[in-house]
């Protein structure tokens, strides 16, 4: 893999980082790339584009364009993997990925690029190797404040069950662990994405869950970490274990650093984490949910005497009572020609708007507790409303976050470090489920 140029652009095309390794093209190719990527229709431009003898390969991370140019017949998959690893490195060293973080830490990023690439050839992307060479200190783009905490808390493992870590604790630079006063902490995130299709009769038609376990380490040294999963965790239908509530996935894969000698017998992952963020395990469950879908929608669509379209929606959260869904948003496609919207919402914290260019009503709900329900009545003025145009309503798409809850039931039993790190150290575990695609047909 041979790289000619590497640059990072903001979403508006501002030049944030530019590095030319081989002198095969001028800096004007940055403008060429941005013109190409913005001239395309649709939200997802092709990852690989060409201009004369130059090939552009890019990804989107943190709202930024991460772009590589090459004139050689390099594997685009290798370049994409490199760009993903580079963005993870920048996130590890800067603490977050944003335009402001890049601008404030440009000297650090150029120092990283000098060590990662030499004359267009990748030397290393290991944070363990790079920590011996990187001398620049990161500048935090967002000062810590106790008054600015996320709704999604980080909850402790084992003896720290009642403690909550600030939201900014896991977004600081890894170099902060070098400081004498810096905290020795390790974060384990269980993150799941849910794809669901529910038919108009309320029957579950499709259900997929993709999950991963991420580790972010802020410890100067850690010889070994042991992560204990559910004892009833099974892979495939033929490996159901134990007599308790089984936690099953169809397939899973592990990072190359994970030792699996205790996985078959005790469901324990062993690894020696390096500083920074790493995905240690990925898993997938297809065509099945261990419990009922977290949300049910009860819609009613009709035409009133004045010729307006009436949509009455009742959204019920079927999570346990102690669970809470946050940042809910429902998108409801409406007929062509819709002019205006009036609404009646069951609580004052809800909001709704009609976006004419997308022909969609967006219904936003900040929080919804398990075992409760909300409702909304939408009245749409649609000139020439007919029975055929009423069929254009739906399907409804839901987006949401479910903190402290996993769709598969996967749990971290324990998180142990050996040898015990001298001095104070903290271990945190977070569970969160996001909607990848949650469709409810009307």
């Amino acid at each position: 893999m041979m790289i000619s140029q590497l640059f990072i652009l903001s979403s508006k095309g501002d030049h944030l980082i530019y590095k030319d390794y081989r002198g095969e093209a001028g800096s004007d190719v940055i403008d060429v790339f941005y013109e190409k990527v913005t001239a395309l229709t649709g939200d997802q431009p092709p990852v690989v584009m060409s201009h004369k003898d130059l090939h552009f390969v890019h990804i989107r991370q943190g709202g930024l364009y991460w772009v590589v140019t090459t004139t050689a017949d390099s594997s685009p998959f290798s370049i994409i993997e490199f760009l993903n690893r580079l963005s993870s490195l920048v996130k590890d060293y800067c603490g977050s990925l944003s335009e402001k973080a890049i601008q404030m830490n440009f000297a650090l990023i150029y120092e990283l690029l000098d060590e990662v690439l030499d004359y267009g050839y990748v030397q290393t992307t290991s944070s363990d190797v790079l920590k011996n060479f990187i001398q620049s200190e990161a500048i935090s783009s967002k000062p810590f404040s106790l008054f600015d905490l996320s709704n999604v808390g980080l909850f402790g493992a084992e003896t720290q069950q009642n403690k909550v870590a600030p939201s900014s604790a896991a977004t600081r630079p890894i170099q902060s662990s070098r400081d004498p006063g810096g905290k020795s902490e390790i974060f384990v995130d269980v993150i799941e994405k849910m794809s669901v299709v529910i038919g108009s009769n309320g029957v579950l038609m499709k259900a997929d869950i993709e999950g991963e376990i991420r580790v972010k380490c802020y410890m100067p040294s850690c010889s070994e970490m042991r992560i204990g999963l559910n004892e009833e965790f099974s892979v495939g239908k033929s490996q159901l274990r134990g007599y308790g509530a089984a936690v099953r996935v169809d397939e899973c894969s592990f990072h190359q650093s994970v030792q699996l000698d205790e996985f078959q017998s005790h469901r324990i992952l062993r690894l020696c984490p390096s500083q920074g963020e790493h995905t240690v395990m990925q898993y997938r469950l297809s065509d099945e949910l261990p419990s009922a879908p977290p949300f049910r929608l009860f819609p009613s669509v009709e035409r009133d005497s004045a010729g307006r379209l009436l949509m009455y929606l009742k959204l019920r959260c079927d999570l346990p009572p102690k669970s809470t869904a946050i940042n809910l948003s429902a998108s409801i496609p409406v007929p062509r020609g819709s002019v205006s919207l009036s609404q009646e919402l069951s609580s004052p914290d809800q909001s709704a708007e009609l976006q004419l260019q997308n022909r969609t009503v967006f219904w936003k709900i900040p929080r919804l507790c398990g075992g409760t329900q909300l409702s909304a009545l939408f009245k749409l003025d649609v000139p020439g409303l007919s029975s055929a145009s009423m069929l254009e309503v739906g399907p409804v798409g839901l987006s949401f976050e479910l903190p402290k809850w996993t769709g598969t039931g996967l749990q971290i039993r324990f998180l142990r470090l050996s040898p015990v790190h001298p001095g104070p150290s903290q271990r945190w575990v977070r569970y969160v489920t996001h909607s990848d695609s949650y469709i409810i047909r009307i």
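DSSP finds seven helices and 27 strands in the chain. Confidence is low (pLDDT under 50) at residues 143-169.
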